[in-house]
Amino acid sequence: MDITTAREVIAAFGAELYRRFLTDSTGGNLSIRIDDAIIMTPKRAGARWHWQLKPKQVLVLDLEGNIRIGEGEISREVRTHIALLHRFYPEATSVLHSHPRHIMAFCAAEQPMPAVLESTKPLGTLELCRYAPSESQALADAVLEYMLLHENSLSQNGTIACMAPRHGLFVLARDIYAGYEVTELLDGNAFCVLQAGQLGGVTPIDQRTTE
To answer: In the chain, N or C: fewer CB atoms in 10 Å?
Structure first.
Protein backbone atom coordinates (compact mmCIF):
# COMPACT_ATOMS: atom_id res chain seq x y z
CA MET A 1 0.00 0.00 0.00
CA ASP A 2 1.30 3.46 -0.85
CA ILE A 3 0.54 6.71 0.98
CA THR A 4 -2.11 7.86 -1.49
CA THR A 5 -3.99 4.58 -1.14
CA ALA A 6 -3.63 4.64 2.65
CA ARG A 7 -5.27 8.07 2.84
CA GLU A 8 -8.15 6.79 0.71
CA VAL A 9 -8.55 3.62 2.79
CA ILE A 10 -8.51 5.50 6.10
CA ALA A 11 -11.15 7.95 4.89
CA ALA A 12 -13.34 5.04 3.74
CA PHE A 13 -12.96 3.06 6.96
CA GLY A 14 -13.66 6.11 9.11
CA ALA A 15 -16.96 6.62 7.30
CA GLU A 16 -17.83 2.93 7.66
CA LEU A 17 -17.05 2.87 11.39
CA TYR A 18 -19.38 5.84 11.85
CA ARG A 19 -22.11 4.35 9.68
CA ARG A 20 -22.01 1.09 11.64
CA PHE A 21 -22.07 2.86 15.06
CA LEU A 22 -18.56 1.55 15.70
CA THR A 23 -17.44 5.06 16.57
CA ASP A 24 -19.15 8.37 17.18
CA SER A 25 -18.85 12.08 16.62
CA THR A 26 -16.96 12.65 19.85
CA GLY A 27 -13.80 10.84 18.84
CA GLY A 28 -11.81 7.94 17.49
CA ASN A 29 -8.80 7.90 15.20
CA LEU A 30 -7.23 5.58 12.63
CA SER A 31 -3.64 5.20 11.50
CA ILE A 32 -1.48 3.22 9.11
CA ARG A 33 2.31 3.17 9.16
CA ILE A 34 4.21 2.89 5.89
CA ASP A 35 7.99 2.91 6.36
CA ASP A 36 8.84 6.25 8.01
CA ALA A 37 5.37 7.77 7.62
CA ILE A 38 2.25 7.50 9.78
CA ILE A 39 -0.96 8.24 7.93
CA MET A 40 -3.64 9.32 10.40
CA THR A 41 -7.06 10.90 10.72
CA PRO A 42 -7.07 14.55 11.84
CA LYS A 43 -8.46 16.05 15.02
CA ARG A 44 -12.27 16.46 15.10
CA ALA A 45 -12.88 14.01 12.25
CA GLY A 46 -16.18 13.13 13.89
CA ALA A 47 -17.27 16.36 15.52
CA ARG A 48 -16.54 18.59 12.53
CA TRP A 49 -16.96 16.31 9.51
CA HIS A 50 -19.04 13.40 10.88
CA TRP A 51 -16.36 11.08 9.51
CA GLN A 52 -17.05 12.11 5.91
CA LEU A 53 -13.37 12.82 5.29
CA LYS A 54 -11.83 13.36 1.90
CA PRO A 55 -8.50 11.55 1.43
CA LYS A 56 -6.66 14.89 1.28
CA GLN A 57 -7.85 15.61 4.84
CA VAL A 58 -6.05 12.53 6.18
CA LEU A 59 -2.67 13.63 7.52
CA VAL A 60 0.75 12.21 6.76
CA LEU A 61 3.06 12.45 9.77
CA ASP A 62 6.68 11.61 10.42
CA LEU A 63 7.56 9.14 13.15
CA GLU A 64 7.69 11.93 15.74
CA GLY A 65 4.16 13.07 14.95
CA ASN A 66 4.98 16.15 12.89
CA ILE A 67 2.83 16.90 9.85
CA ARG A 68 4.52 16.17 6.53
CA ILE A 69 1.46 16.40 4.29
CA GLY A 70 -1.92 17.94 5.09
CA GLU A 71 -3.32 21.01 6.78
CA GLY A 72 -5.56 19.68 9.56
CA GLU A 73 -4.80 19.48 13.27
CA ILE A 74 -3.05 16.42 14.69
CA SER A 75 -5.27 13.95 16.54
CA ARG A 76 -5.30 14.21 20.32
CA GLU A 77 -4.45 10.50 20.64
CA VAL A 78 -1.41 10.63 18.38
CA ARG A 79 0.90 9.63 21.27
CA THR A 80 -0.75 6.22 21.56
CA HIS A 81 -0.60 5.53 17.83
CA ILE A 82 3.07 6.52 17.66
CA ALA A 83 3.97 4.41 20.69
CA LEU A 84 2.31 1.30 19.26
CA LEU A 85 3.56 1.72 15.71
CA HIS A 86 7.10 2.39 16.93
CA ARG A 87 7.15 -0.78 19.00
CA PHE A 88 5.26 -3.28 16.85
CA TYR A 89 6.00 -2.24 13.25
CA PRO A 90 6.32 -3.99 10.80
CA GLU A 91 4.37 -6.92 12.31
CA ALA A 92 1.58 -4.45 13.02
CA THR A 93 0.90 -1.57 10.65
CA SER A 94 -2.38 -0.08 11.86
CA VAL A 95 -4.12 1.23 14.97
CA LEU A 96 -7.87 1.74 15.26
CA HIS A 97 -9.21 3.69 18.22
CA SER A 98 -12.99 3.81 18.30
CA HIS A 99 -16.05 4.23 20.49
CA PRO A 100 -18.23 1.23 19.54
CA ARG A 101 -21.74 1.68 20.89
CA HIS A 102 -21.99 -1.60 22.83
CA ILE A 103 -18.38 -1.87 23.95
CA MET A 104 -18.67 1.58 25.52
CA ALA A 105 -20.98 0.06 28.16
CA PHE A 106 -18.11 -2.17 29.31
CA CYS A 107 -15.68 0.78 29.21
CA ALA A 108 -18.05 2.81 31.38
CA ALA A 109 -18.54 -0.05 33.83
CA GLU A 110 -14.81 -0.82 33.74
CA GLN A 111 -15.64 -4.50 33.32
CA PRO A 112 -13.96 -7.04 31.02
CA MET A 113 -16.12 -8.57 28.31
CA PRO A 114 -16.18 -12.37 27.88
CA ALA A 115 -16.15 -13.95 24.45
CA VAL A 116 -19.53 -15.64 23.93
CA LEU A 117 -19.54 -16.33 20.18
CA GLU A 118 -17.57 -18.80 18.09
CA SER A 119 -16.32 -15.87 16.01
CA THR A 120 -14.80 -14.17 19.05
CA LYS A 121 -13.56 -17.26 20.89
CA PRO A 122 -10.01 -16.93 19.46
CA LEU A 123 -9.86 -13.38 20.81
CA GLY A 124 -10.70 -14.39 24.37
CA THR A 125 -11.90 -11.97 27.02
CA LEU A 126 -11.63 -8.31 26.07
CA GLU A 127 -9.84 -6.68 28.98
CA LEU A 128 -9.01 -3.16 30.12
CA CYS A 129 -5.67 -1.43 30.36
CA ARG A 130 -5.03 0.56 33.52
CA TYR A 131 -6.81 3.89 33.73
CA ALA A 132 -5.13 7.01 32.39
CA PRO A 133 -6.62 10.31 31.22
CA SER A 134 -7.48 10.60 27.53
CA GLU A 135 -5.08 12.47 25.27
CA SER A 136 -2.18 11.90 27.67
CA GLN A 137 1.22 10.27 27.48
CA ALA A 138 0.07 8.21 30.44
CA LEU A 139 -2.67 6.68 28.28
CA ALA A 140 -0.16 5.88 25.54
CA ASP A 141 2.02 4.19 28.17
CA ALA A 142 -0.93 2.25 29.60
CA VAL A 143 -2.09 0.93 26.22
CA LEU A 144 1.47 0.04 25.18
CA GLU A 145 2.01 -1.75 28.49
CA TYR A 146 -1.12 -3.84 27.91
CA MET A 147 -0.23 -4.66 24.31
CA LEU A 148 3.26 -5.81 25.32
CA LEU A 149 1.77 -8.19 27.87
CA HIS A 150 -0.50 -9.69 25.19
CA GLU A 151 1.93 -9.69 22.28
CA ASN A 152 1.18 -13.32 21.42
CA SER A 153 -2.30 -12.29 20.24
CA LEU A 154 -0.73 -10.39 17.35
CA SER A 155 0.89 -13.50 15.92
CA GLN A 156 -2.14 -15.68 16.67
CA ASN A 157 -4.99 -13.38 15.64
CA GLY A 158 -3.33 -10.56 13.72
CA THR A 159 -4.57 -8.12 16.36
CA ILE A 160 -4.33 -7.08 20.00
CA ALA A 161 -7.35 -5.30 21.47
CA CYS A 162 -8.03 -3.62 24.78
CA MET A 163 -10.47 -1.20 26.31
CA ALA A 164 -9.36 2.04 27.91
CA PRO A 165 -11.53 2.63 31.01
CA ARG A 166 -14.19 5.31 30.47
CA HIS A 167 -12.78 5.97 27.01
CA GLY A 168 -13.03 3.43 24.20
CA LEU A 169 -11.47 0.58 22.27
CA PHE A 170 -7.91 0.31 20.92
CA VAL A 171 -7.05 -2.33 18.32
CA LEU A 172 -3.48 -2.83 17.10
CA ALA A 173 -3.52 -4.85 13.88
CA ARG A 174 -1.34 -6.33 11.19
CA ASP A 175 -3.36 -4.16 8.77
CA ILE A 176 -6.39 -1.91 8.88
CA TYR A 177 -8.61 -4.62 7.38
CA ALA A 178 -7.96 -6.99 10.29
CA GLY A 179 -8.39 -4.12 12.72
CA TYR A 180 -11.79 -3.20 11.32
CA GLU A 181 -12.95 -6.82 11.32
CA VAL A 182 -12.02 -7.33 14.96
CA THR A 183 -13.61 -4.03 15.99
CA GLU A 184 -16.91 -5.12 14.47
CA LEU A 185 -16.66 -8.67 15.86
CA LEU A 186 -16.03 -7.37 19.37
CA ASP A 187 -18.90 -4.91 19.28
CA GLY A 188 -21.22 -7.65 18.01
CA ASN A 189 -20.09 -9.80 20.91
CA ALA A 190 -20.76 -6.91 23.29
CA PHE A 191 -24.30 -6.56 21.93
CA CYS A 192 -24.93 -10.27 22.52
CA VAL A 193 -23.60 -10.15 26.09
CA LEU A 194 -25.77 -7.15 26.94
CA GLN A 195 -28.90 -8.58 25.33
CA ALA A 196 -28.36 -12.06 26.74
CA GLY A 197 -28.33 -10.47 30.18
CA GLN A 198 -32.03 -9.74 29.63
CA LEU A 199 -32.56 -13.46 28.99
CA GLY A 200 -30.85 -14.64 32.12
CA GLY A 201 -27.20 -14.28 31.12
CA VAL A 202 -24.74 -16.16 28.95
CA THR A 203 -21.79 -18.44 29.67
CA PRO A 204 -18.41 -17.48 28.19
CA ILE A 205 -17.78 -19.76 25.24
CA ASP A 206 -14.58 -21.22 26.69
CA GLN A 207 -16.62 -22.39 29.71
CA ARG A 208 -19.45 -23.87 27.68
CA THR A 209 -20.06 -27.53 28.40
CA THR A 210 -19.83 -29.69 25.29
CA GLU A 211 -21.84 -32.86 24.90
So the answer is: C
